[in-house]
Each structure stands twice: as C-alpha cells, then as structure tokens.
Amino acid sequence: MLLTYDENGGYPHPDHIRTHEISVRGVEIAADPLAPASLGEPWQVLKVYYHQNFHRARALALDAVMHELGLDSPYRERLASWPEDPTQAARLTTFIPAGDFFEVRDDALRAHATQVDPNGFWFAVPLALQRKAWPTEDFQLAQSHVPSTLPEDDLFAGIPTRTADKVDAWYYTI
Questions:
Q1: pLDDT by residue, tens only, the chain of 174 residues
Q2: What HEC string does the chain produce?
Q3: What is the pTM assigned to this prediction?
C-alpha cells in the first residue's frame, strides 16, 4: 500500500506535487517485469491512496463547531473564497477514524519547525473540537488491485493477510 499526495500536492505545494510524481512512477516501476533486476523482483502495490485532508467539507465542519462555541474560526476567510466543488467531494473515498491519535499527528507536524508554525493556523482548532466535528483522516483510493467497497474506513481493507509477511506497505508523509 502507498499513501501519497494527489497530483495537486494537496493544496498545491511544489514538494508534495513532486512527491506525487515520484510515488506514482515508483508504483509503475515496482510492477514492471522489464525493470532492471537490480531493483529486485517485480511486485504490485495493492492500493494507492492520496491524502485528502484539505477539503471544504472538513473546513466547514471545523468552522461550524468553532462558531457554535463562540470562538474565532481560522476558516472563515478561506471559506468565503472557497467555492463548492463536487469533484473534490467525490474524491473522498476513505475515512480513517483517527481522533484518538490527533496529538501524535500534531506532535509530528510541530517537529517540522521550519514547515509549520506551532502557533499558527494548523493548530487553531482545539483537538476536542476536531474530534467532535471531523474525527477522521481522509483519503482518496486512487488505485486498487484488490476488491474494495467505498466508502472505506480501513486502509488495509481487501488486502490479503498472506501479504503481511512481505514488505508491501510504503508510507510517506511530512
């Protein structure tokens, strides 16, 4: 399985776009029986997901919970100029319950001190409110070579357990 960014890098971000390009090409090469033998035996990545956490529905839910409690929302201005896009909503296929791990996620983001302002936008909504409004991390199932039923709540759904002994899970994130 591979988790990566979509062709827009999520929001668009040049490093994330490049990550997408390299990841997609890596999946192609991994399965190519004509690839150089030095790369090892060919194997098929069973599922490819794109991160989809930067979407309007999530921002609307977080904005609403902030307003319910009379708090200033970091989403107000963004939402005013963020048009509805049915194609974006259609990309949301997989919702992983992750609320119990939001602290770990945020600690990982804060570890990138040059990338994310610990006092900035990313951390403006209290974790308890995030858990209440939108307790999932969201993805798009971009490619599957196993049976899949959408929407999903498990990234490993459909992957045979016999593959667990092989190295078939790649994970890249910032």
A1: 999 999 998 888 899 999 999 999 999 999 999 999 998 999 999 999 999 998 999 999 999 999 999 999 999 999 999 999 899 899 999 999 999 999 999 999 888 878 788 888 889 999 999 999 999 999 999 999 999 999 999 999 999 876 445 544 444 333
A2: CEEECCCCCCCCCHHHHHHHHHHHHHHHHHHCCCCCHHHCCCCCCCEEEEECCCCHHHHHHHHHHHHHCCCCCCCHHHHHCCCCCHHHHHHCCEEEECHHHHHHHHHHHHCCCCCCCCCCHHHCCCHHHHHHHCCEEEEEEEEECCCCCCCECCCCCCCCHHHHHCCCCEECCC
A3: 0.86
